[in-house]
Design a protein that fits this description.
The chain has five helices and seven strands, in the order βαααβββαβαββ. The protein is of the alpha+beta class. It has a single domain, classed as Aminopeptidase (3-Layer(aba) Sandwich). The longest helix is centred in the middle third of the chain and has 15 residues. Bound molecules: coenzyme A (COA).
Length: about 150
Amino acid sequence: MSLKLVRNDPFNVELLKQLFGNSQDIQLLWPEAKIPFARDEWSEKFNLNPDNISLLFQLGGKNIGHVALIRDPLKRLKICFVYLDPSYRGSGFAHEMLRKTESWVKKSKLADTLFLTVRTYNPKAFSLYTKNRFQKLYQEGTAVLMSKDIK
Ligand SMILES: CC(C)(COP(=O)(O)OP(=O)(O)OC[C@H]1O[C@@H](n2cnc3c(N)ncnc32)[C@H](O)[C@@H]1OP(=O)(O)O)[C@@H](O)C(=O)NCCC(=O)NCCS
């Protein structure tokens, strides 16, 4: 079965709270985030800029994954908060979420290049992005900035 991409619009923070289960995962998503999940800071993050987008991925009507598209201060479109429900990991769904996000960005003509930051201590995510042809631009401490041309 394939995933359905649904935009979380208007932004509903409860859906993220239900999805982002344990504290370890929250720290991988956002190392500075409060533990446990704090609705206020996540709402603030998304509502900071009306261009910020939250995409949910559904399987049989159930939300199992998430990808956000956030404009950074340099106006670059960054993929953030990439998350897959632990029960569905290791099954190729994460690759599908990235492919579908990329097609959605292309179709919406939002950007010609996608950016993301991954941590050196998250080798699985790093491998996921590398296999989806994101390239390393530079590293600052544990943060690696990657990009992909999607023209
Ligand atoms: C990141 C995440 C979305 C990846 O989804 P997943 O289903 O667990 O990922 P996969 O098992 O498909 O692994 C992705 C690739 O990394 C490889 N991989 C898995 N574990 C690895 C490891 N420890 N080191 C290096 N590569 C690894 C896999 O081989 C896979 O490639 P393949 O599909 O070609 O075999 C998911 O683990 C998650 O939600 N993690 C918590 C939040 C998070 O870390 N988000 C990313 C923040 S940048």
